[in-house]
Amino acid sequence: MPSKYIIFFSLLFLISCKSENKEKQERVYNSEKPNIVFIIADDVSWSDIGAYGHPNVKTPNLDKLASDGMRFTEAFLTTSSCSPSRTSIISGLYPHNTDAEQLSWPLPDYKKTFVQQLKAAGYWTGLAGKYHMGDPVRDDFDVLHEMQWIDAPIGLDRRLKGDGSGCDEWIQLLQERPKDKPFFTWLASFDAHRPFYDDNSCPKVHTEDDVVLPPYVPGTDLVKKDYSLYYDEITRMDDYIGKVVAELDAQGISDNTIILFIADNGRAFPRDKTTLYDGGIKTPWIIKWPAKIKSGTVNNNLISSVDIAPTFMSVAGLKVLPEFEGFDFSEMLMDTSKTIRDQIYAEDHFHDYEDYTRAVRTKSFKYVKNFYDDLPDTPSADVNRGRSWQSMLQEYKKGNLTEAQMKCFKKPRDKEELFDIVADPFELNNLAFNADYIEVLNEMRARLEKTRSSSNDFLPKQRTPDDFYRETGLPTKYRIRPRPSKAEYMKAMEEGRVLINPDFKE
Prior knowledge:
This protein is 30% helix and 15% strand. The protein is of the alpha/beta class. It folds into two domains: 314 residues, 3-Layer(aba) Sandwich (Alkaline Phosphatase, subunit A); 108 residues, Arylsulfatase, C-terminal domain (2-Layer Sandwich), CATH 3.30.1120. The strands form three sheets. An eight-stranded mixed beta sheet has the order 4-3-7-1-8-9-2-10, sandwiched between helices. Strand 12 and strand 13 form a beta hairpin. The chain starts with a helix and ends in a 12-residue tail after the last helix. About 5% of the residues have low confidence.
């Protein structure tokens, strides 16, 4: 054989070996670092998922996710408000330390995020769906498919593109990722945020007969209608989650891909969202990781959304940032006897309306301290304008509400609340004034104060004016969009100014 052919085939062989070695390196690289798919629902309560025992809400894909992975029964959020919950998760900090603790305050650029760290370590990062964390966070993602929606004063319009679910581009994001890198995706549903559209934008798969109501809302026709439409949006989101799992299977990467599903806060109904009762801060928490997690596992240990950031960094083989306030729960995924905490801490700040409430919860008791007890427990403005609240107002005027259903109207509120979670899961019987529970009350008080002190949580110098009228849910002159940052609010306060919308018309 002529020497030129020998050289040619030798080069071809070397190129082939190099290509094969590169493919092997890529496979090894991907096998060492798990892919991470984070799915976050909007305004969905833990108890409205089939896997958590709801008899009628149709969630076959989430139920399958739970049966294939691990379902946590004592999972909680750091707050029950949309953007503060998300910025807390991504920064690994309690809301009061994010400088984005109020609704629509952007996370400042000087706050680090776990997504930044993953990206710097070689992960490809992408987000599709609802964003709501502020401009500085955008650069954390290689690709960002933000859902287009209008934040109108009398309600969001989220049907400008696609079906309004916020899930339309989830599969596109997974398909356009580079195949030679581990990846992290933040898949954010807009379901089941209000308004609930009574049209063909969402398949109608539930009726009023499917509705299971908590005792703190009346069983009127309007309330049941509202709940049935909310259930429909959960099912629409569930369908997209099934598509995500199928896409990962089709790409052949399911085994070493972590899927974590949670919600940002509880359902948008009276005494749920924007409260620190379990209806506001307890979340569904389902995680699947075939390479590590035994299918059908149930974990009954306490866990908090502030634990997500350190855990995602840990499973990616990265050193956890020292400023993170949560704990790495990765060992709990392989061994349910492992625990990382004996309490969770949650907080409520301004969300449409001013508030300042703190809570500490163990597996047996919850203690709530209402610092602004002169203010009623008014639901968020979108709830105010919805069927359920309007129906409750009608029943309130008629004198038809039960004691449990009157709690949103109570003014002043009890400054302190103590609940036996086991005996009273709906948190209706305040034991703070019961002498038999004084020792428990003192212990829970001490827990709360210790957490406040250790995390530098303190009352602001000044209250924030309401963005909406509590009676109608219509905007006040203080509602500004896009909302100024915390720094801008603090500067105005120091100068003795109050920020007002210059275009506001009564």
